[in-house]
Write a structure and sequence with these properties.
Alkaline Phosphatase, subunit A; ten-stranded mixed sheet; three-stranded mixed sheet; 15% strand; Alkaline_phosphatase_core_sf; lipoprotein; cell membrane
């Protein structure tokens, strides 16, 4: 027993007595793995162990070595299983919202524009800008998609990316908000996909990124952004491919807009390494630019939003590969910052109805079929990874156990219920944390608690006069505050949920 205890204690990546860091967080980087629930983390870890690169075998993913870990309850106000819009409002603005809505309170219903006045909310991006910090947004989805839009937009409908209905007179499309709203004009780094939503439908370009504009109002928002930078005498760059991004001189560039695909960027398994930058490429360039600000920065990195897309297609292979690409970006960011003054969070907005099991042997790829420890009652082989619902229902049980098929990147896993599109999961998601005040993530909390911890640690929004903020304005040394200092402030937001859930 003593030997077992000794091995268990010292096999961990963490010291037994982990100190708390109560410094002011000069910088905050939030990494959002869209749809990256714990089954995705575990399956990716096993996939790595099984030898995607034998020279790099590890028994954990990089962020699993972070010293603090909590759980976030993800439900929207009106749905027990959430979407990426309502959750983005929670973890970026600090309040729970309805499914499909972004940057608004619960009093705004999906697709209802009539109640927007007085119900728009500010995100941590806006609050960081007010304190003189630099801000950036990086994603592999369309920059106007639900998660990144949570940084800057207020809308009753996540789908209004390039237009709004004629009767939505108090609403503006998401792309237009990003470029033309005054509160967003100081966002310094914007990198992702979705170029088509910024160009008029008369615009067409046949060179990468190939794009046909979709805007019906005739506006060219790319030109609008560039004209504004010029009129403000700013140093800026506008880029559309990997090479152009790589050549950006961060020392002489304060504002950067890069859109690398007409729609979402490619899955990492399919990405053209000459045309599209990797998530790590974009994250590194963003940090190079943002770190020039002595007051610090807030950076949101959705990496990869394509994890979510792969799961919706019940295509586990692409989900795992994008999770590994996510890991590279996180490791790069961690190695180019200091945990003394940079709070890094890794979390998900929601999970998926994805699981893996079946008592597979380690020498059997997690992508393939399970061993016969627990044979199926119909005598058919079954996969180690599966989904509760989705498009894989019809054909999977007709297979004969050919692992070659299961290794194909286009292979879709079997499902119990036949749907055209797999759904999200409703369970809690992990929050991995490193850096100042990361010890506040050691419990199960509401998802909007995440936003308040980031604001509290970095002294923005309602937290500018907290002791550690005032005392560390010059030297960065922290004062002691309890976990409850944050919880009490936001507790009022949750009272009515006690009856609801």
């Amino acid at each position: 027993m003593f030997v077992c205890l000794f091995v268990c204690l010292f096999a961990t990546n963490q010291p037994i007595n982990q100190p708390t860091n109560k410094n002011r967080a000069k910088n905050v980087i939030m990494f959002l793995g869209d749809g990256m629930g714990l089954p995705t983390v575990a399956a990716t870890r096993v996939y790595r162990q099984q030898g995607i690169n034998p020279a790099e075998k590890k028994n954990y993913l990089f962020w699993e070595s972070f010293p603090n870990l909590g759980l976030a309850r993800t439900y929207n106000v009106d749905h027990s299983t959430p979407d990426s819009a309502g959750t983005a409002t929670a973890y970026l603005s600090g309040i729970k919202a309805n499914l499909g809505t972004i940057g608004v309170t619960e009093y705004v219903q999906f697709k209802k524009c009539s109640n927007m006045t007085g119900n728009r909310v500010e995100s941590i991006v806006h609050k960081s800008i007010k304190e003189g910090k630099s801000t950036g947004i990086v994603t592999t989805t369309r920059i106007t998609h639900a998660s990144p839009a949570g940084c800057y937009a207020s809308t009753p409908c996540r789908d209004w990316e390039d237009r709004v209905p004629d009767d939505a007179t108090d609403c503006t499309d998401i792309a237009q908000q990003l470029i033309l709203d005054d509160r967003n004009k100081d966002i310094k780094v914007i990198l992702g996909g979705g170029l088509k939503y910024f160009l008029p439908d008369s615009y067409s370009n046949s060179t990468p990124p190939k794009v046909n504009g979709t805007r019906k109002d005739g506006k060219n928002l790319i030109q609008s952004w560039e004209s504004y930078q010029t009129n403000q005498s700013r140093s800026y760059k506008l880029v559309f491919n990997k090479q152009a991004l790589a050549t950006v001189d961060a020392k002489n560039t304060d504002y950067l807009l890069g859109l690398f695909n007409a729609d979402h960027m490619s899955f990492d398994a399919d990405r053209s390494t000459t045309d599209e930058p990797s998530l790590a490429d974009m994250t590194s360039k963003a940090i190079e630019i943002l770190k020039k600000n002595d007051k610090g920065y807030f950076l949101f990195v959705e990496g990869c939003g394509k994890i979510d897309h792969a799961h919706h297609n019940t295509n586990a292979y692409r989900a795992l590969i994008d999770t590994l690409a996510f890991e590279k970006a996180i490791e790069s960011a961690y190695n180019n910052t200091s945990p003394d003054d940079t709070l890094i969070l890794v979390t998900a907005d929601h999970s998926h109805v994805f699981s893996f099991g079946g008592y597979g042997l380690f020498e059997e790829s997690v992508l393939g079929y399970a061993s016969s420890v627990e044979p199926s009652l119909d005598g058919m082989p079954y996969l180690q990874m599966a989904y509760s619902n989705g498009p894989g229902y019809k054909v999977r049980r007709n297979l004969t156990g050919n692992n070659k098929d299961a290794m194909d990147k286009d292979f879709v896993q079997e499902t119990a219920v036949w749907l055209a599109y797999e759904t999200h999961g409703g369970e809690d998601v992990p929050v991995y944390a490193s850096g100042p005040w990361s010890h506040l993530f050691r419990s199960t909390e509401e998802q909007n608690y995440v936003a308040h911890v980031m604001m509290y640690a970095s002294c923005v929004g309602d937290y500018t006069t907290k002791e550690h903020c005032v005392a560390t304005a010059n030297n960065g040394a922290g004062q002691t505050h309890s976990f409850w200092a944050v919880s009490v402030i936001i507790l009022s937001n949750f009272f009515y949920f006690l009856e609801k859930f």
